[in-house]
């Protein structure tokens, strides 16, 4: 006669130790938080402790990755640049169409989720030149670098006069878009967005006539 086995006693539930759980998206959450706080409070109101609290991340996780608020903000801006939609450059796209596509993309960026952070960046870079020197040298985003290259190619191809002042043309378009978004005539956000294509098209046409581009 077989002997009946005694069932094993149930194991007590495993209790987890105290502490904040790890998050696989720590960097993404920190980037979003630092851009939101920078947009709300500016450079002087930004701190690593504040980012940790806003993101719901342990302070140790923040301080292990970034030595100060500048490093974190720079990383967040570089990450944002990597996700920018830069108008595709192809040989069959005229310089006018490329400039319009670029300017519309820039306007949408300024009107988007992190637009306030980007616009604060200009004043912060002016007030704190040493901390923001690398961003100043890179002209804020890779989109502007791509645009500069495209304008220079247009000069070489004969789409624009060979003596076109590239910096002046670039600054005129970029600056006008920024001012238009920051200081619009009394309009709702929906009206501003709806009219941006017409505004940019007229802006680009005016600038191209100014440098003597062929119609």
TrEMBL record:
The organism's place on the tree of life at top rank: Bacteria
UniProt region (Disordered), positions on chain: 1-24
Gene3D superfamilies: Homeodomain-like, Tetracycline Repressor, domain 2
DNA-binding region: 47-66
Record's keyword terms, sorted: DNA-binding, Transcription, Transcription regulation
Span of domain HTH tetR-type: 24-84
Protein name according to UniProt: TetR family transcriptional regulator
């Amino acid at each position: 006669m077989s002997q009946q086995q005694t069932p094993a006693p149930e194991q007590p539930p495993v209790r987890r130790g105290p502490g904040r759980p790890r998050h696989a998206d720590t960097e993404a959450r920190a980037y979003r938080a630092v851009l939101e706080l920078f947009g709300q409070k500016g450079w002087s109101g930004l701190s690593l402790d504040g980012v940790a609290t806003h993101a719901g991340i342990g302070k140790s996780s923040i301080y292990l990755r970034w030595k100060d608020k500048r490093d974190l903000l720079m990383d967040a801006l570089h990450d944002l640049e990597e996700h920018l939609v830069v108008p595709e450059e192809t040989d069959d796209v005229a310089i006018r169409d490329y400039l319009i596509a670029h300017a519309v993309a820039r306007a949408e960026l300024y009107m988007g989720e992190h637009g306030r952070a980007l616009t604060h960046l200009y004043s912060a870079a002016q007030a704190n030149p040493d901390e923001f020197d690398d961003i100043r040298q890179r002209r804020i985003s890779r989109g502007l670098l791509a645009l500069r290259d495209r304008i220079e190619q247009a000069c070489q191809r004969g789409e624009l006069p060979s003596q076109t002042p590239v910096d002046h043309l670039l600054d005129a378009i970029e600056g006008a878009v920024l001012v238009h978004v920051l200081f619009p005539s009394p309009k709702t956000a929906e009206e501003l967005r709806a009219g941006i294509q017409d505004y940019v098209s007229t802006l680009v046409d005016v600038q191209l006539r100014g440098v003597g581009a062929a119609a």
